[in-house]
Design a protein that fits this description.
Blueprint: E1 2-7, E2 14-19, E3 22-26, H1 32-40, E4 49-53, H2 59-62, H3 65-72, E5 76-78, H4 80-90, E6 98-100, E7 104-107, E8 110-116, E9 125-130, E10 139-143, H5 151-157, E11 162-166, H6 171-176, H7 181-188, H8 196-206, E12 213-217, H9 226-238, H10 242-245, E13 250-253, E14 263-264
């Protein structure tokens, strides 16, 4: 199984996940042109995308769905509540392209499990994705919009081989920054976004001996930096037994506008 974030942050979010030449998107917060360009950087054709799975209805996660779904003629997977909220924003989508999800389902040959996160949207979800069945089956956990770490997140993210998880802001930069008070309260609240330290504490619970790769995603452009996110998380992890137990564990930050390298689980 392979994956890469295509864009990440409040300006847009999208991730490609797949196996061999079969792929799907988690969210589509970028234009069709940008999608095609960013996929090409990974040697993936847009024609190899078999569906779009939606985490929640905020614009930075759905703004490209309509044009992309119409052009590629692919299904869009979302819960009933998300469909109600986002349908007016998408333009015309054929009924056969609208797939309602609730628990687990398959897309592009991979099994996807759904679990709720805590965000200020109608509904918000993370996903645990299972690679093709067999001795090398791997799992990828994704949770990028949540104000707190929930028991569902602990249940589904613990022991994944790879994680794409939110390290949105540094608490000091947020509270000392120029955002208005209401926005600071929203971001730091239980239905906002995870701070670097919160995420690191979650990783202490989720990382197991098999965990290979972690991607820090949805960083705030105003209240965080890639260097600060990495240094904060690494400092906390290095003070635990995780560093000794997982010498091959690799962390990186998701770029804001471009994809990172395609990560293939089980390979260097």
């Amino acid at each position: 199984m392979h994956f890469a974030t295509l864009v990440s942050g409040s300006s847009g979010n999208a991730t490609v996940v797949g196996h061999k030449n079969r792929n799907f998107l988690i969210d589509c917060g970028l234009s069709l042109k940008a999608l095609q360009q960013n996929l090409a950087l990974l040697n993936i054709s847009a024609s190899e995308i078999e569906g779009i799975i939606i985490t929640h209805e905020h614009n930075d996660h759905i703004k490209g769905i309509g044009p992309v779904a119409r052009k590629l003629k692919i299904p869009v997977y979302a819960t009933a509540g998300i469909w109600e909220e986002m349908t007016p924003s998408l333009g015309k989508i054929a009924e056969e392209q609208k797939v309602i999800i609730s628990d687990s389902f398959s897309c592009a040959g991979l099994n996807v499990q759904v679990f709720p996160t805590s965000h200020d949207s109608r509904e918000s979800y993370g996903f645990k994705i299972h690679g093709p069945a067999g001795s090398q089956e791997k799992t990828l956990g994704i949770a990028t919009d949540t104000g707190v770490i929930t028991e569902d997140m602990n249940r589904y993210l613990r022991g994944c081989d790879a994680l794409i998880v939110e390290a949105n802001h540094d608490e000091e930069r947020l509270w000392n920054g120029r955002y208005p008070w209401y926005l600071k309260k929203r971001i730091s609240g239980n239905r906002g976004h995870l701070a670097n330290k919160q995420l690191a504490e979650g990783l202490l619970e989720w990382i197991q001996g098999n965990t290979e790769r972690i991607v820090l995603a949805h960083l705030s452009e105003e209240n965080n930096t890639p260097q600060l996110a990495l240094s904060t998380v690494l400092k906390i992890l290095k003070n635990s037994t995780i560093a000794k137990d997982n010498p091959d564990l690799r962390l990186r930050v998701a770029p804001r506008y471009t994809p990172h390298e395609l990560i293939v689980l089980g390979e260097d």
